[in-house]
Amino acid sequence: MPPALQQSDHVYSSINEALQTAKPNNFLYYINTFGLEYIVVGVRRNQTYCGFVLTGPFLSSIPDTDFISDIIARNNLPVSERKQLQEFYRSLSVISSNDSNSLGELIVNLCLHPHTDSQIITPEIVKPVLDKLQQDTKIAESQTTIEFRYEFERRLMEAIARGDKVELAKILNEGNSFSNVSDRIPESPIRSAKNLLITLNTLCRVAAERGGLHPVYLDTISERFSITIERATNLPNIKKLNFVIIQEYCEAVQAYSTRKYSVIVKNAVNYIDLNLEKPLTLQDIAADIHVNPSHLSRKFKQEVQMTMMDYINQKRVEESKLHLQRGKISITDIAFMVGFNDLNYFTRVFKKYMSMTPSQYVKNAKS
């Protein structure tokens, strides 16, 4: 969980106080300001309150772009962390109210039940028998399939590294090798399919890294899919994940890759993207990445085809649009949130890129 979303001691104290006076069979349905939902159950021994069990976080609705915008605005979170927040919330389970009630009932009964010591048991280990003739036959029959699979992986990684969605769609239409590989664990097809997805997640992460995706984005996407893979409960969902993983890495490279830039410009772009809400000047950025300001300015315009300030303003306008569409906070607050310290300047910059003022944009969004 991102540090900014972690519970404070005050929250735990409030939960503790509420459960101390509750009945033993009560459970608390708690939602914090970040929209994270929890089931909390008090633990008692011999009618004495000992503490509580907190289960979560989970969500009761799909975290779309508007959801993330509201979380950022409500909690004054840095707008540059939108991507990381989006990846975190997507990793959470979305459950219905009936399921959350059932979960609460289950935990209440577990906490009321006397403790019972458990004991682990293991099945007898069966050693595999190596049949050389059978192995040679299998290798000969599967040679073509194996060669196709590795060629498929190579082309797939190249397409992801380029952020080439057109080529990626073409490759996927030709056949997904991961869905055609025989079970590595025959007695557990779901575990076998999950293992292949873990491999796919790693391959896509490596490809995206080659494509110039920043480690911050790589880590959040990779971690989310690792969690999602383990939570998958059936083969149809696992099969769908094949395509979701591949496409999302490709889209991330397309949106955030700095591969085409020199090291200097790449460092500047990464710094801007990860600090959008802070004061950003050419001098400060140059000092942070240890280059001459004039040299950085010249290289940036040459490679990005716009000045650094134009790039910063364009990014800030795109972020401001997401909050203006919601219409829940003032235009002034949005201006400061995305890094502008002057409302009039924000209005001029916004009009330059959108051909309308922020107020007109809000009016159009409502209509």
From TrEMBL:
It comes from Paenibacillus macquariensis. Residues 266-364 form the HTH araC/xylS-type domain. It comes from the Bacteria. SMART domains: HTH_ARAC. SUPFAM superfamilies: Homeodomain-like (SSF46689). Keywords: DNA-binding, Transcription, Transcription regulation. Signal peptide: none annotated. InterPro entries: Homeodomain-like_sf, HTH_AraC, HTH_AraC-typ_CS, Tscrpt_reg_AraC-type_HTH. PANTHER family: ARAC-FAMILY TRANSCRIPTIONAL REGULATOR (PTHR43280), HTH-TYPE TRANSCRIPTIONAL REGULATOR EXSA (PTHR43280:SF2). This is PocR sensory domain-containing protein.
